[in-house]
């Protein structure tokens, strides 16, 4: 399992700003269609360059896109994990509330022994109502 917070720290330490790919083609006759060098560029200059014969453009695009895409995905994953934990906590509270064992349809108690006052208490303390 990956450590998303550590991955995010790595992203945050990378050169800031949008990255783009610039290609340079061979100038020799017969090789003009082949890429000679690919550079990952930001406003501060070259981040990295691939200068072997015909470097993989897809790899360069991946590197440049990851600069913004990976931190965004990590932030969303961390937020989703936090929301799952919050919801698990609410479910545990509802399961162990002492009167109702399970609820349906936003708090309608399936335990006929509960009073309306009991159900109002559980609705107000164990989940948010939709506005």
Please sum up the structure shown.
With 131 residues, the chain is an alpha+beta fold.
Model description:
- The strands form two sheets. This protein has a three-stranded antiparallel β-sheet, covered by helices on one side.
- It starts with a helix and ends in a 5-residue tail after the last helix.
- It has 131 residues and is an alpha+beta fold.
- It folds into two domains: 4-85, no CATH class; 96-126, no CATH class.
- The longest helix is centred in the middle third of the chain and has 39 residues, at 57-95.
- The radius of gyration is 27 Å and the shape is rod-shaped.
- Helix content is 46%, strand content 18%.
Instruction: Name the helicity range.
Output: 40-55%
Low-confidence stretches: none
Please count the helical segments.
3
Q: Give the overall shape.
A: rod-shaped
Mean pLDDT: 76
Structural class: alpha+beta
Q: Whole-number radius of gyration?
A: 27 Å
| Number of separate structural domains | 2
How would a textbook summarize the main sheet?
A: 3 strands, antiparallel
Portion of residues in beta strands equals 15-25%
Order of helices and strands: HEEEHEEH
How far apart are the termini?
37 Å
- The count of strands amounts to 5
Strand numbers in spatial order across the main sheet: 1-2-3
Task: Note the main attributes of this structure.
alpha+beta; 131 residues; two-stranded antiparallel sheet; 5 strands
